[in-house]
Amino acid sequence: MPAKPTGEGARFLLAGGGSGGHVIPLLAVARELRRRGHSLFFVGTSRGLENKLVPAEGFHLKLISVGGLNRVGLGRKLATLAALPFATAKCLGLLRGVDAVFSIGGYAAGPPVMAALLRRTPVIVMEPNAVPGFTNRVIGRFVRRALVSFPETARFFAAGRAELTGLPVREEFFQVPPKAPGGPFTVLVTGGSQGSRTLNRAVKESWPLFQRAGLPVRIIHQTGPEACEALRAEFAGTGLEGEVVPFIAAMPAVFAAADLIVCRSGAGAVSELAAAGKPAVLVPFPFAADDHQTRNAEAMERAGAARLVKDSEMTGQRLFAVVSELTAAPETLAAMSHAARRLARPGAAARAAVILEETAHFRLTAAPRPETIR
């Protein structure tokens, strides 16, 4: 591993936010950089989840005013375009003393990344989706390095600048052991922290089908907070084995108990599936920006790690059919599990930190260090 920059360490700006899918991987890299003795700060908005999570981790967050451009109305788009020059100008001032910018995309990343390109400050991006989001597509040819999760994503960046690192995932997912044989076939259905109406409806519709078939299936259904009580009461009357819960905090442990996982296909979800080596039925959220969840699910399906079912096609009958098929095909499940494991990329946060160190070291040795902001 290359030596770290000496002296006071390098200084980094971390850009991106809005959703947990953007903020949580950034925090993993930030913790690694802090552990290695570097200084850093975040740039985000007051509306995004970064405004809560970043200060809670002890990192400084500098706020800018900017909105989204993708899948928004004309009024919002015009307001964002009008605000962009001011947000970018503010970021130009924040870049004094910064050795490199690390971005994971999202609307909050646009101004700091554009400012970095204008100042010729190196930009390293992490793109966890099979198809980059709007910001990373726009700047793809100009970034110093691109850290990707799927081989096909490399085509959106300059030749030789993409590296397959994966997305930072909690270590507990990599430690999930293969499911031991025996016991009821366990299906975990999760629509994320807020749940999924499509998955909630399909699971409910599937209960009488599993009842009539007498299939020995155990269903763990994470519904989100709003639908839980009603679904839990109805499930209790089915006689089926399992549980209905609003939220799962210890998700790696539940992954370990599952033979099959039915879920959405955001970058975090597919990265966790790969880390744990779990076969999955992926139901992409149809309104995700740039339809990136469908592209992620397609990549997982091509690799042999998952089955893709469109949101519009996910019914109780379809869920029952795919679960029934896979319960009778343990060799298929084993192959899907192996295929998922092959997609796992441990150490993504540490690798991102090393690349940032290498970039900062080159910058520090190639030119005098500018004044550092405090």
Write the layout of secondary structure elements.
Elements: E1 11-15, H1 20-35, E2 39-44, H2 50-56, E3 61-63, H3 74-94, E4 100-103, H4 110-119, E5 123-127, H5 134-139, E6 145-148, E7 162-164, H6 171-174, E8 185-190, H7 197-213, E9 217-222, H8 228-236, E10 241-245, H9 251-257, E11 260-263, H10 267-276, E12 280-282, H11 292-302, E13 306-308, H12 316-327, H13 330-342, H14 348-366
Parallel strand pairs: 1-2, 1-4, 2-3, 4-5, 5-6, 6-7, 8-9, 8-11, 9-10, 11-12, 12-13
Helix pairs in contact: 1-14, 3-4, 7-12, 10-13
The figure for the number of domains is 2
Structural class, by secondary structure, is alpha/beta
Largest sheet features: 7 strands, parallel
Low-confidence stretches: 1-7, 368-374
**Remind me, CATH topology of the largest domain?**
Rossmann fold
CA-based gyration radius? 22 Å
Question: Count of DSSP helices?
Answer: 14
Report the average pLDDT across residues.
Answer: 89
Across the major sheet, the strand order is 3-2-1-4-5-6-7
Would you give an account of this structure?
This protein is an alpha/beta fold and 374 residues long. The protein has two domains: 11-168 and 347-366, Rossmann fold (3-Layer(aba) Sandwich), CATH 3.40.50; 172-342, 3-Layer(aba) Sandwich (Rossmann fold), CATH 3.40.50.2000. 43% of the residues lie in helices and 15% in strands. It has helices at 20-35, 50-56, 74-94, 110-119, 134-139, 171-174, 197-213, 228-236, 251-257, 267-276, 292-302, 316-327, 330-342, 348-366, and strands spanning 11-15, 39-44, 61-63, 100-103, 123-127, 145-148, 162-164, 185-190, 217-222, 241-245, 260-263, 280-282, 306-308. Strand 11, helix 10 (267-276) and strand 12 (280-282) form a beta-alpha-beta unit. Helix 1 (20-35) packs across helix 14 and helix 3 (74-94) packs across helix 4. The longest helix has 21 residues, at 74-94.
